[in-house]
Every structure is written in C-alpha cells, then in structure tokens.
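Below is a complete specimen:
___
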Amino acid sequence: MKAAINAMQVGMQMINPGTELIEYKKFIEKVVSHYGYHLVERPNVFHDEDTTIFYDWAHRDNGYFCEPGWIIKKDHELELYNEDELSDDEFNKEQEFTVGEIYHISVVLSNSPKKSFVSERNTKIFQKTNNSHLLKSKHARELLNNINNNYSTDCWKLSDINMSIGQAKLGLRECLDKKVVRSLGIAGQKNSEIILLKCSIAIQENSVYKLTGRKYLSFEQDEKLTDELNNILTQDKRFDKRAEYLNL
C-alpha cells in the first residue's frame, strides 16, 4: 500500500499543464519498481499477439468513457467517440493534462510479474457501446431503453436497472450477443496480491487538486526511492514553486 500511495503521489506531483498523460505511467512505474513490485497490465484478448491495449492509467473525464475496462474484447468497443471529429483543443485535452479539466488516475500493482488473464468469474459491470441493432426480445428492448435513458455513458450493474432482475438478465443476453452492451471483464493473476488505487484530480491554474481519495498533508522521503523521486515526492504542490523533473 505504501508503494502504491507514494507512486500515485509522485505521479500527481510531476503533472504540469501540457504534460502528456502517458508520462504519468512512466513515473508511477519507476516508483513501483523501486519497491520490487510490478504494474499490472491489461491482458491481451486479441488473437494477434502484437496487438496490445494498455491500461488507462490516466484519462480525461470527457463524458464518453467514464470507466475504462480491464478487458476490451472488440476494437469498436474503444471507439466511443471519433477522434477525427475533435478540434485541436479537444484532442490536446485527451493527450495532455490541461488546466480546467478533470482526469482520473490510478495505480494497480502486483507482487508478481506474471501476465494477467481474463478471469472466469462472472462479470457484474456493463456499459453501452456505440453499436446499434434491431433487438427482437421485449426484455432486451426494455433494458436498452432503460440504459439509454439513464446510463448512456456510465457503467452500471443489473441491480441499478429499473426492472426485475430476471427480466433484465433475459434482456442482457441478447444485448451482449448483438454487442449493443459490453461487459467489463475481470483481470486476474494466479497466486498474486494486487492493490488498486484510484482518484480524480482537477488541473488548476497553479496546482493539481485531488477531488477524491484520501488527502495527505505531507510525505516523507523513503530510503527505497532515489533522490530524484524523493525530491518529487516532497516538493511543493504548486506549479510555480516546482523544479523541472521532465528529463527523468
């Protein structure tokens, strides 16, 4: 837990307006490795081994994709909006930490370097896709109508749906089969311990403000970290008081 907390804090500390989102992963990976742990990567579910989808360690709250799934089974399930239609400013907000925007960041670490796999446990979280299909089942149409009205971009569980569980399950079967709804699969590792931390942050004019999760007033240097990482961990949280560590 200490490794995860310090990794998230270092990752937050290095964020400046204009910093690319991918830089967040580079910093948390450095911290985690110094404790002897490993970041958990999303399992590859494609037949092509060269096709890799990385876990969304940092992503903007754009209203389209509120909860990245560990398991993405189809290419089109990632296409919840068309990047070609975005303005330059909107595109930059998807790629860089931008003042005035909200981002969700996470750390998922394991004590094992083993590859994760798709668990056989039943999925309980679902999300609507951008696919459309003429559904035959009355229960499937009712379920999809309920989702469109209440969970068009959010994730949901069957218990959230305003219809009986039995009818919702019947409708869900066809919705999944026709790919108008997708399940967020569960990642697993054999004989491993996994810790996941998540929080939401707001990029302000001169600082990163933590919206969710426990707020720590101060951090102490750790002998397992390098001087450079300890300096980032304990530095002032305001942009205009920071040293530049982008060359790490």
Q: What stands out?
A: The two ends are 24 Å apart (CA to CA). Helices lie at 2-13, 22-34, 88-95, 138-150, 165-177, 227-234. The CA atoms of residues 110 and 194 lie 5 Å apart. The domain at 2-114+190-241 is CATH 3.90.230.10 (Creatine Amidinohydrolase).
